[in-house]
Request: fold
Amino acid sequence: MGTWYDFISQYGYIAIIVILSLGIIGLPIPDEVILTYLGYIISMDGMKFSITFVAALIGAVAGISISYFLGVKLGEPFIRRYGPKLFISDKTIDRTNRLFRKYGPFVLIISYFIPGIRHVAAYVGGITKYSFKRFMIFAYVGALFWVFTFIAIGRRLGENWGLISTFFHQYIWLIGGLALALAAFGGLYYIYRNHKFNNIL
Reply:
């Protein structure tokens, strides 16, 4: 489990905020594994669910907000130049750009469930100067679902929480496919609503 396990053991809820923030920004941190582990700790009465959930949500929200503002202030050249140091490749940036253009803000919701994409979606939102108010709505809702889902899985699995890592890596393409299907549905609905609204105007 390594350093993050010791960090959480020593600093508790503050460590959760810091680790998840850095993970969302792009550092190589096993976010889903950590959230599932937290669910396991909760099941053992080692932490309180409410406080753990809030700490994890704050970490995710802080990380994705920082990424957004880095995109706004530094632009695409910065992320393309320094992205590889955060394990963010040009291929991932281009893929995220395409998803953003195709599915709009719904990518911000499902990006948390697609490793690699979630690290870039907020940067792209900032680079394209996407409205921060709209960004908050979609990105923060996505954070809430993501955090709750994996903590709940950890609580359910109990001492078998470590299985999530194996499952996640084995079924990553299935998870990504389902997430994209949800994005497609949301994107179509988004286009339909805008088209209907424009016709009324």
